[in-house]
From TrEMBL:
GO biological process, one term: translation
Listed GO MF terms: structural constituent of ribosome
Organism: Daldinia eschscholtzii
Family, similarity comment: Belongs to the bacterial ribosomal protein bL27 family.
Keywords, ordered alphabetically: Mitochondrion, Ribonucleoprotein, Ribosomal protein
Name used for this protein in its record: Large ribosomal subunit protein bL27m
Amino acid sequence: MRIAQLQRPIAAAASGISRTAPSTTIRQLRDVFGQLRIAANNAVVEGRRHATVKAQGAYKLRDSSTIPKKLGAKKSGDSYVIPGNIIYKQRGTKWWAGENCGMGRDHTIFALASGYVKYYRDPARHPNRQYIGVVFNKEDTLPYPSHAMRRRKLNMVATPIPPPQPEPAISASGIPTQVVRQGYGRKPHPRDERVIKLKDDGSYAYAEESWRLGKLIRTEKRKLGSRRVAMKHRRRRAKAIALEMRAEREDKIARRKEALDAQRAAKAKRMREYRARRAAEAHQKASGPGGEMPPPGAGEKTDPPRVEA
């Protein structure tokens, strides 16, 4: 602290000492100087100048419990809403969701369809509850009568659908209007069946429809779900492919076996015909030119007699 700041307190103390008697003791001097109120760190409490302008403090947010929740009605009665519009925000179930309305997990009531807001009570559902609903026509009132027809807004117009005309099996030119080609193998799969129709341009040519051509290409679908589900589908697909390959292999073996059996049967037939022809030739040769049959045993070879020693 500067000495100039102690000028007034010391002057006041000196004037007090001069007014006292000469027999002032050290104790009185201590009392007089005690009025200066000088602290231990040599800082004078009295006589200090303070700021005359209050400083700007730091800005503090209010407590979260005081922030308004903005609860209450967001749409009044007969107001037009679209799906997703919030109608009422609340804590607890002061209002309940009625016709064409839903309630969120924080008890917020919102619209599920386009229409007009209606606040109403329904004693048939509950004697004390208050409901909020949405109607399609502004002049309607809720609740609807019991067992009344359900009102839905599908934005569709009823249009009669004519029955499909049966297509003739034979065209005007006398040829079939469509040809069905089966798959390969002894047991063709229905998936490999192809329907080829006759063109309408008068060219007498067959062509396959575009959507059927697109079905011939097998595309792999996008994998959904977890890795466990993907592995499950993969095992199922691998099993189906293995079964299909096994069926094709068995069909190939069966066709090969049928071909071998047919070859063996044809060879056996040729051998029987050959033997029959040779037997006929031998019989004709043995019968002689006159056609008489030789006596039995005439053409057989006999062994010479054995002479015993």
